[in-house]
Design a protein that fits this description.
The chain is α/β, with parallel strands linked by helices and 223 residues long. The protein has helices at 2-14, 42-53, 78-91, 118-129, 151-164, 191-202; strands spanning 23-27, 32-39, 60-67, 100-105, 108-115, 136-139, 142-143, 173-178, 181-188, 209-216. It has 6 helices and 10 strands. Helix 2 links the parallel strand 2 (32-39) and strand 3 (60-67). The chain is flat, with a radius of gyration of 19 Å.
């Protein structure tokens, strides 16, 4: 796994959004990568995780990086953070901000309320983490579709999306849906295929939640 570790470090060094000096990389025998240390923003935290996933041989990424804002930054109060996050949510044309309640306690954001699609739940969290001063996000949003959907139809729509996708082998990914909760099982060759499968499910009408049991399988880096 030393080969995989070296490749992850190289990828982090080449990504201008990431300062690798404060990041420690550990790789388990099964290709699972653990990132620890500090980064100056959530954008850098997301970038570091994406960089690790791009490396062939990585089967999983556990992102334990802490966000430590630079000392010269004047961080907003909880009240200011709440106002800024509410404003940014309201600026997004895809979000219904009035259905989302934002609370901030010691820099940690709590999202409550509802959205009408699962991908919006993910976007709301990403929007919140983009605001300077946020120390973390607890996402308690629920998905409340505007129409009723049948589980079988949701599963069929996801499988059809897989069949149209360049990166997914629909024969290798098994989809089940129970009460709007999608379970993905099987194996995919790399992060690109995993992301394509997850995003396709997340974008499908009627999905309330996703249980991701997909495995990323690669023989790269075996010692």
């Amino acid at each position: 796994m030393e080969q995989v570790k070296a490749a992850v470090l190289d990828e982090l060094k080449l990504d201008s959004r990431v300062n690798v000096d404060n990041i420690t990389v550990t790789v388990e025998d099964d290709g699972a990568v653990v990132l620890t240390g500090t980064v100056p923003s959530f954008a850098a935290r997301h970038a570091a995780e994406d960089a690790a996933w791009r490396v062939l041989g990585v089967s999983f990424v556990e992102n334990d990086l802490d966000v430590k804002y630079q000392d010269h930054l004047e961080l907003p109060s909880d009240e200011e953070l709440q106002e800024r996050i509410e404003k940014v949510l309201s600026w997004d044309p895809e979000m219904t901000a009035e259905d989302i309640a934002v609370q901030v306690v010691a820099g940690r954001v709590i999202l409550k309320g509802s959205v009408d699609a699962y991908w919006k739940l993910l976007r709301a969290e990403r929007i919140a983490t983009s605001v300077i001063g946020v120390m973390g996000v607890d996402n308690y949003l629920s998905v409340v579709p505007t129409h009723d959907f049948v589980d079988e139809e949701i599963a069929d729509d996801i499988v059809s999306a897989f069949e149209r996708n360049l990166y997914i082998d629909p024969e290798s990914v098994h989809v089940t849906v129970a009460n709007g909760v999608v379970t993905l099982e099987g194996s995919v060759p790399d992060f690109v295929a995993w992301r394509a499968a997850y995003d396709a499910a997340a974008a499908t009408h009627g999905v309330l939640d996703i249980v991701d049991n997909l495995n990323i399988s690669s023989e790269y880096g075996e010692d």
